[in-house]
Design brief:
- Helices cover 30% and strands 20% of the residues.
- The chain has 399 residues and is α+β, with helices and mostly antiparallel strands.
- Helix 5 packs antiparallel against helix 7 and helix 11 packs antiparallel against helix 12.
Length: 399
């Protein structure tokens, strides 16, 4: 990050001055996310154990965490906003099976659920229409469901195969199999109603004949060898079903695909380490494109044997230039032009394959209040939900 140093303000215990070595248009917004979260000295001093000893200023205090079972928090009586939060305690439960998650809400075992997978969207919609639950859908910029490709290793270090994979992906089958509304089709990391979206981005569309031609060109340059790769998903049945559908589509274009499953934490770790060829993935939900800077800038590519945030190993000077212009240019017209250039460049190099703009769903029992109706400290309305994240500071139960 372009931060030179941070100095304290004398006489102001809660104030500091951050010195940057270049303009950063959206820096204030960065401080509302991970970039603005400071770790307590006790956490830092605890070493690896610090991850299980969280210290913060939030509305709830950590009690305990049983991996794969539950996370318990209780009300923080010293919270800086008077009178908040309203809830005394919350238990978070990871329920990986989607149907079991919905069943738990129906039977009253849980009060709230959220999910990005669309397969049970019809069921949740039905329950809401019958007046049995409350249901909210995410708005604004959301994650993209996509195929993350490793641009630095074979076979996807060749743009022809990346483009062929995109052209061999038939979205209508995917939408039907996943209950995703066709209106959620993605051709950019931005939704079509984003002020930064470029309608003329030129993303490759389904064209099986063109995909076959690119595969054959690659084969001719590689002694007739068939392009082969491993495609990984998580073990969730819904993800495996998507994997099988895409495997069939891609093999029709001439690819040889091996489908593998991997537990989610390991699946994510392969993105950090670069130990993958193609992964079913979900990412890129920043309302302002600068929020994607660290995922795409070439300086975030990991060295051999290390980890890095540029999961796709995307190394392109034109992408870097557009990202830097968008970050540092104070003129909104120039920023919009830079991000339009970025979208068009990504359509040329196809660093991944878009499937859809996900739409997070938040469902709750009828007694739950103000899950999304929250305000900022000055009383102005807050964004209700961002990529599935919603605050429970002002949530309460009517009983």
């Amino acid at each position: 990050a372009p931060i030179e140093d941070v100095t304290l303000v004398e006489g102001e215990p809660l104030a500091a001055v951050v010195h940057l070595d270049q303009p950063w248009v959206v820096f204030p917004a960065v401080l509302t996310n991970q970039g603005g979260m400071l770790m307590a000295p006790s956490q830092l001093d605890a070493g690896p154990a610090g991850s299980r000893q969280p210290v913060g200023t939030g509305p709830f205090r950590f009690v305990d965490w049983v991996p794969d079972a539950k996370l318990n928090v209780v009300r923080n009586d010293d919270y800086w906003q008077d009178g908040l939060p309203y809830l005394d305690e919350i238990e978070f439960q990871p329920i990986t099976d989607l149907q079991s998650r919905v069943n738990a809400l129906e039977t009253g075992s849980i009060d709230v659920l959220h999910m990005a997978q669309q397969q049970l969207r019809p069921k949740l919609t039905q329950l809401a229409e019958e007046g049995k639950i409350q249901l909210w859908f995410g708005t604004g910029e959301e994650d993209e469901a996509l195929i993350l490709l490793n641009n630095s290793t074979e076979p996807f270090n060749d743009v022809r195969l990346r483009k062929a994979l995109a052209q061999a992906t038939e979205h209508n089958e995917y939408f039907e199999a996943t209950s995703t509304p066709p209106s959620r089709k993605a051709d950019s990391f931005l939704s079509s109603d984003s002020p930064w979206y470029a309608a003329d981005n030129g993303w490759p569309t389904y064209d099986l004949d063109a995909a076959k031609q690119l595969v054959n060109e690659w084969k001719a340059d590689h002694g007739g060898e068939t392009p082969t790769f491993v495609f990984r998903t998580t073990p969730a049945p819904e993800q495996q079903s998507v994997g099988q559908l895409l495997e069939r589509q891609w093999e029709a274009a001439g690819f040889d695909v091996t489908l593998e499953t991997m537990e989610q934490t390991q699946h994510i770790a392969t993105g950090l380490s670069g130990n993958y060829q193609a992964n079913l993935w979900r990412q890129f939900s920043s309302p302002d494109p600068d929020g994607e800077f660290h995922w795409w800038i070439s300086t975030a590519i990991a060295g051999e044997g290390s980890t890095g945030l540029n999961f796709a190993r995307l190394d392109d000077p034109q992408v870097d230039e557009a990202l830097r212009t968008g970050r540092t240019n104070l003129d909104p017209v120039e920023r919009k032009k830079a991000y339009a250039d970025l979208q068009r460049r990504m359509s040329e190099i196809v660093p991944w394959v878009y499937l859809s703009h996900l739409q997070w769903m938040l469902a709750a029992d009828l007694d739950v209040r103000d899950l999304t109706n929250t305000t900022l400290p000055d009383g102005t309305p807050a964004m209700p939900m961002v990529a599935g994240v919603h605050r429970m500071t002002q949530t309460w139960l009517e009983s």
